[in-house]
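Hey, weird one. I pasted the HhH-GPD family protein sequence into the form twice and got a warning about non-standard characters only the second time. First submission, copied straight from the form history:
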Amino acid sequence: MVGAVLTQNTAWTNVEKAIVNLKQAKALSPEAIMMAHPKRLATWLRPSGYFNIKARRLKAMCRWVVQQGGVRRLAKRATPELRHALLGVHGIGPETADDILLYAFRRPVFVIDAYTRRIFARLGLITGDEPYETLRSLFENGLGSSAPLFNEYHALIVIHGKEVCRKRPLCGNCPLTDECPSAVSYKAAED
């Protein structure tokens, strides 16, 4: 859950550094994060960027988790109810809520992120500017309802988006080149 908040607008490698800082400070629990002085917490989170904002968001989420009786009690809630509650927490939007639901609670909720939009727009399967919920429903209806499948599929999208279908894509390394209408224009630019 901490990672889902910290990964907002930053690379996972930087989030890992912030999490290591929290572990070294023995502050990787809701109670420890709530008790931490805001400036100290922000210092631990510095590698994740936007550290003052993320410190406030992380404190808000931890306070909410504790008020709700902890993660075990939250895990007993139905997915729609839990998602609705998460969206009511300061700093948690749809992508972060779905990230928490999929990875922390192992719920079959598909995460729509910038990589998903970029890859599927380049493939011509979406325009890329559809509302979040429209895309989430599209993926969930198309793939069925399987948290392990969503987890793996999303992880593969992230890897492909980081390594190949970047902002400046490496179409020559892409296994989807034959199916990708965007590949022709990007390959011409590579040459």
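That's the output from the first submission. The warning seems to come from a hidden character in my clipboard, not from the data itself. The chain has a mean pLDDT of 94.
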